[in-house]
Amino acid sequence: MKKIATIVLALAAGSSLAACSTLRGGAIGAAGGAGIAAATGGNVEKGAAVGGVGGAVVGTVVDD
Angle at the Cα of 59 (from 54 to 60), degrees rounded to 5? Predict the structure, then answer.
């Protein structure tokens, strides 16, 4: 339950910083990665990490 709360807080923090697409993308990616990992029976921590990195990269690229 702590993992889910951490992800939700990260998502809320990222979305409140409208000017920082990298953080927002990372938070959304982490939440998505954790959700997919949980739904498919995978490792939630690894899913959140991979999703967060991917989201941060996409957020940075799209912001440019």
Answer: 100
Three-state secondary structure call for residue 40: helix
Evaluate if pTM is beyond 0.70.
no
Q: What pLDDT score was predicted for residue 31?
A: 92
- C-beta separation of 27 from 11 below 8 A: yes
Query: What stretches of 1-64 adopt beta strand conformation (E)?
Result: none
CA atoms of 52 and 48, how far apart (whole Å): 6
Token duo for residue 43: 């490792």
Q: What are the structure tokens assigned to 46, written together? A: 């690894």
